[in-house]
Hints:
four-stranded mixed sheet
Amino acid sequence: MDVVHVLALHPEKSEQVSGYKDLKMLAEELSIPASYFKNINDLETQEVLIQVKADILFVIGLSQIVKSTVLNIPTHGCIGFHPTMLPEGRGRAAIAWTILKSLSPGVTFFQMDHGVDSGPIHAQVPIELASDEYPLTLIEKIKSTIDVALDEWLPKLHRGSVNLRPQNHAQATYLGVRREKDGCIQWKESAEEVYKLIRASSHPYPGAFSFVHGEKIKIYSATLRPEFTGISGRVLAIEHDNPIIACAKGAIELGETRSAQTINWKIGMDLDL
C-alpha cells in the first residue's frame, strides 16, 4: 500500500490545530507529492483525489466535517482516526477531555460516514491513562500504539479481510470544542480538579492560566500537595521558588509557568478566584 498524495492543512489555518505541523513540507522531504487545502470539501481537493485515483483517503487530526462529495471519491472511501475508544468520546479536543474527565484513551480507525466519528470500526487498541498524564505523554503513547495497530491491521486491509464492527450508538458520548479561555483556573474547585485542568491545558495547548494582581500567568505543570489547607487562591508556602496555592480541598504546587512580568511570589499573596 503506497502513499500517492498528501493533503495538508494550509498554514493560514494553523490556528485551528494545536501543535500544527506542515505535512506538505514533511511529505516533500520524503519525496511524496503533496498539496495544501483550506477546506477539505472544496473543488480543488476533490480534483486532486480524482486525479491521483485514490483507493483510500486517511483523515487524521482534522476538525472539519468531510462531506459525501469527498467521502465517495476514493474507491474504498475514507478512513478516520480518533484517540478514544469509540463510541466513547466522539467529537473535538479528545486528548484534553480525556485528561479532564478520565476517559478511555485509545487508537481507533473507523470507516467515515456522514456522522461525527460514528462509522464502523476497522481497528481499535486501548491505552492506559496515567494519573499524572499530560497531553504530550499521551500523544507519545498514541503514536506508539498507532504503530502497533497499523502493523496488525494494514495487511488485513490490503487483503480485504478486515471485519468492520458497527459502533453501538446508544453508548456514544460527545465532546465539545475547547477554547483558550476554558483554561481559566477556578481556585474554589478542589486541587484534583485544578490539577486535571492544568495537565489537560498543557503543551501543545495554550496552557491553564490565572491572574496575580492583574498579571496573567500561564501554568503548564503542577504537583498535588494534599497536606496543605488554606483559603482558596492564597499562596500558603514557597518551595524551590514554586508557590503552593490553596484550593477548595488540598493545594497545588506550581511548576512551569510563564508571564510577561516576573512575579515575586510571597506567602499570603492572593490569586484571582
